[in-house]
Each structure stands twice: as C-alpha cells, then as structure tokens.
Amino acid sequence: MNLRNTRTNSNDPTFRMLEAELEAELSQRDDSIQQRCDRYDTPQSYIDTVIVAYDGDTPVGFGCFKPFDDSTAEIKRMYVRKDYRRKGVASIILMELELWAGQHDFIKLILQTSTKQPEAMQLYAKFGYKQIASYGMYANIASSVGMQKLILE
C-alpha cells in the first residue's frame, strides 16, 4: 500500500464521492438516527479541514474537523472504504487530523459516534479518546457516544 494524505475541503469531488459512500453505509446501520443527523453532517455544511487518503491514485478514506469553540475542534466524519479497513488507514487519517487541529491552535478534539459503530469506538479509545456526555443534537440519542481528547497542553 502506498498511502498518502491530501488536505482539502468539503468542496473536493473525491471527498463528496466518499461522503456519499459513508452516508449509504450509515443509513444501513441505523437509518432513523441518520435521517435525524443528516442536516448537520452532510457535505452541504462546508468544512475547510478535510483529509482525503489515497493508496496511489485510489481514494480510500477521509476524515474532517471543524471548530466547535475557541479551543475545541469537532471531528465530524471519518470513513475508510471496506477493502482498506483494518490496514491502519483510519489511524493515519486520525493522526493527521490531530496534527492539523493542533496547527490551528485547538487544544481539544471532541466527536460523536455510535454504539452501532464499535470499530470507531475502538479506534478512538486506542488513540486516547475518553467518553464524555453526548452533546448538542446528539444528547437525547440513546446510541450516541461522545468522546474527547486533549491534543495540546
């Protein structure tokens, strides 16, 4: 595997293609939650900080974050195509997101995931993310899991 990351934004056509794949997969896992959250987490919400991972010229995954407050960024999306899972791609994307957020002077990253995504919960825990109370629109969703990590001290 010849993995490389590209920093881009949510207008990037490759991001939009991969985002559509993620949306389809999330809908299969739990369509009722996905319909509730779509208006907040779809490409129509412009995000200036997107990482797209490639194996050579083949796009294989992405992650992104956006400001939550002055010191905190929120990871909004992470996705790796099925054929590339369990090969370290998500870890590389997450490390790049943490680095980039630190370069923007954020000291903490937060995110929401779901009990229906145990592989995501495992990834974040492996990188030191701790569970917190769900927040915002996710607060009343039983399967929602909030997580956070200090990236700068």
Rg measurement, Å: 14 Å
Distance between the termini: 34 Å
How would you write the strand order of the largest sheet?
Answer: 1-2-3-4-5-7-6
Number of separate strands: 7
What is the mean predicted local confidence, pLDDT?
A: 89
CATH superfamily: Gcn5-related N-acetyltransferase (GNAT)
Domain count, please report it.
1
Structural class: alpha+beta
State the share of residues found in helices, binned by percent.
Answer: 25-40%
Overall 3D form? globular
| Low-pLDDT residue spans | 31-36
Using the 3D structure, state the CATH architecture: 3-Layer(aba) Sandwich
Specify the number of helices: 3
Please give the largest β-sheet.
7 strands, mixed
| CATH C-level label | Alpha Beta
Strand-residue proportion: 25-35%
H/E element order: EHEEEHEHEE
